[in-house]
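User: Quick sanity check before I run a bigger batch. Here is a single chain. Can you write out its predicted 3D structure?
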Amino acid sequence: MSQVPNAVHTPTGAAGVAVRSGGGVSAEAPDILFVVRHYMWLIVLGTLAGVLVAWVSFLGFRRWWPQYYVAAQFRVLPPPNVDPIKGPTGDNAAVTAEDIQRFILRQRLLVTGADVLRRALDSDAFKQPKPGVKSQWLQKHAVMPEVALRQELYVSAIAGTDVFQVGMSGADREELTGLVNAVADAYYLQLAYDESAAAGNRLQQLSTMQKNLEESIKGVEAALADFRSSHDISAILRMQEINAAMLGALNTEFVKLESELAGARTNLEIIKKQVDAGTLQLNGQTEQFVENDPNIRNLESQKLMLQQEKAVLLANFGPNHRSVQALDTRMAEIAKQADEIREKLRSQARLQILENAQNQVSSAQGRLDEVRDRQLRKDRELKDLDRNLVDYRTREAALADQRELLKRVTEQVSLLKLKSRDDAGRVMWFSHPQVPEPQDISFPKLAYFLPGGFGAGLLLSFALAYLMELTNTRVRTPRDVTRTMQMPLLGFVPDQEDDSTPEGELTTSVLTAPSSMIAESFRQIRGRLGAAAHTKPFSSLLVASVEPGGGATTVACNLATGMALNDLRVLLVDANFYRPRLKNCYKNVPLLGFSDVLSGGATLSQATVAHTELPRLHIMGAGSKPASTASELLAANAFRDLLVDVRGKFDLVIFDGAPMNLVSDSITLAGRVDGVVAVVRAGATKRGTVARVRDQLRHAHATLFGLVLNVAQVQTAGYFRENYRTFHQYAAPQSGATPTPTS
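Assistant: Done. Predicted structure follows.
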């Protein structure tokens, strides 16, 4: 019996999607581009709503809370050293522009100062702008009016000019004009009081400080000159470098002598121990010196003469002669005397070596003490030089600080003198405040409201769309299956309304409408089922929806038809005892069916019928048994026997099962067949439901080949729109030139 190649295999216990408590699936942050495309309608409507709200707000503010801006303008004249006719020229132009900017900044402080504000608040414009009428502004700011006026005043320079303005915003045009005029008059009057007592006292204090600083600087300069005359700074610097170098050399020599002293002491200790133990070995030169001692040489000469004499006696009398024995005794005494002298000389030599080692230690210690004394002297000399340099640099730093302070004080004195002479003369009226026209509204401005409403609407609508996508747990796109849920996807089937070639029956599109997008989708699913032919062949397959209305019957019929078109003998069985659907798809389905065969009421040949146009496809209905009775038959041995029987007659058996989340029949059947294809209706099934069904299949030890996303709609800028459009353009009949796809 031939078998159909296996699809993607998901073994029990394989790593799947993370499941929350309650069966929910952990959400993944959606892609921004996907959110924009999928919720384009919401973003467009939200942006339009933002623009509309901005327009309504603009009209409301303009109708009930319009604001006007009134300003008095003053011109700043050039400094006295600039020709008022020719104006600033050359390098003087840049200096004058900076001077004007600094001058305007100083006037800003003067306008918002306490003196000007109090003078303005005491005027009639603030207290009683009209006879018998109190100021609305003063009633509104009865508490701390000076602080409120300082906050509402605008003092700013007009860019590119020598003009600055003093202005305020408000709703009452006439009262606002009077308030601004009162502040401008108060400022202009304040300029005439530059020679006030406070300014004079400040100038006198700064002048006194300037004089004291000049005298102090003279004293410090004189003391520094005396110090230079008594201390040659350049010579001190040279001596400091020389002493530092010499001290570094002495430090190096000191370290070297310390090492030599340590070596000499170690050598002395070793020699002492060897002398005490009598193990000190003499070198060859010392041994030669011992052998050359006159006494030893004399005794060796005597011994040699006795040896010669003994040789004569031995030749004449033999070894036992009394004279020979006497010579031996004499020679032994001479050898003993020589050995005693040698040992005495060696002892003296060892003592001499010990004495030499002690002398080396003493010499090294003496040189080390000498270098230490020189180090201390150089260090004291270097510290004395450092103290002189620190004293000199401290005096120089003190002199520099006093000069800097004198510079700042001199500048302040100059500014005060210049201000007292020139501020009043350098400011002139440029334009008096005028009552604005009703249409000259400063707030609201349509140029600000519309872009703001557009941006706010766009941002809020996108945030809402992003939140909707983030909280949406329904399965809608392949991305939801593969990336978010991490489950295998066999393919997706488009909605029939989105197919441009809707001819033929939906349940048999592969046969009746082979050029449609729906038929191509089923062929792709069929191809993916046969992609892994070498992994695990299968001969029985369950096709069931996760929830009711998923379209499992349509998928099962088209898969069965597609497999039959591939020259496979296919048996399509209606295993949905509650709502059998195959009898609606095929007109010649027998009354006896699956439940009758399981119960023994019919044979396999009685319950099956061949397709009228496709003889290799056979159909078996649900049968005549009640659902409550037929469901129990799936767990009995009769089903196992039936499965063995049909496998001998057909290459592939496809069961069209009931929804897996509602009916236990499909879960039971899934554990008995070779694999399961789960059908999910796009946009109707939640991810948690799919995850619970997957767990049920896992507990039933069923193999899930993958999911089929059914009725995937195009929508506006949806996920599948580009796929459908490209397919229709590619599959369109070719006449003449090749059509070019358009976006």
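The first strand starts at residue 68 and ends at 76.

User: Great, the batch can go ahead then.
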